[in-house]
Amino acid sequence: MCIGNRFAIMETKVLLFHLLARCDLKTCEKTRLPLKIAKDGFNLKPEGGFWLNISPRKNIHHSIATNAVNGTRQLTPLPLFGNTIKLFFRRETILDYINNIYKLHPDAKYVGMFEMTIPILVLRDPELIKSIASKNFDLFPHHRSFVEEDQDPLFGKNLFALKGERWRQVRPLLSPAFTSSKMKSKMERTPIS
Length: 193
Description:
Blueprint: H1 3-22, E1 23-27, E2 52-56, H2 64-68, H3 85-88, H4 94-102, E3 110-115, E4 118-123, H5 126-135, H6 153-156, H7 164-174, H8 180-189
Antiparallel strand pairs: 1-2, 3-4
Signal peptide: 1-16
Keywords: Endoplasmic reticulum, Heme, Iron, Membrane, Metal-binding, Microsome, Monooxygenase, Oxidoreductase, Signal
Membrane topology: Peripheral membrane protein
């Protein structure tokens, strides 16, 4: 294969990457929907062609989470790295990183961040945390876990690591052990030094 051909293919991939990262592609009126495959050639192609409109995105991290949570205070994310570029290049420790995100807006009940391309909400308000953890826990079964159940059977079956339906099954089993009266009795027996 010619070196010029390889270079052209690589440039095409880079151009396509930047186009998809920064623009929304939508079919226009010229494209016939549903698509019908043309029978006049060897290659599969739609009849009349496949026409697209290209429009630039307002935010490179175009996601449902950022559109759904309008007004979330957050650091401006970088493409691919989000807010973790200092961690990635070891310019900041994980403790400093978490502390800086937490202290980003002291008056906010929650702040937003991007870990690579994944949007994350960091809760700051104790009342909001209490509401989610005790009263509205059924609305938040899909939380972030650090260890998967199949990777580490001991820590993966912990309530904090479980997600979805498995979390829903285990949560009611453990709730009676953490009632306020049982917690008070445990604290009374625990010596504080």
